[in-house]
Amino acid sequence: MSLYRLPPGQRRPGGGLGPRPDGPLFYTSEAVFPGMTDVQSATLDDPDALPLQVQIQTAERIGWMETAHRLPAFERYPGAPGD
Predict the structure, then answer these.
(1) pTM of the full predicted structure?
(2) Which of 33, 71, 73, 67 is nearest to 53 (CA)?
């Protein structure tokens, strides 16, 4: 894992293989949210091991995301084998 520099007070580790980082694993910014770390939870080997604590950037959230949990849910495409 490598760190590369962003504006002062911010850092992101590279998540990809090779010399060029191509996917952030986490983000820190003392200017934006001091003392906190934004972990890209989907990048973890076991995302369920670290329950989410907050949602961020909700100002730009698509309106229907607020009620998406009320919609029918399918583990696979509806009607596919195993659903």
Answers:
(1) 0.45
(2) 33
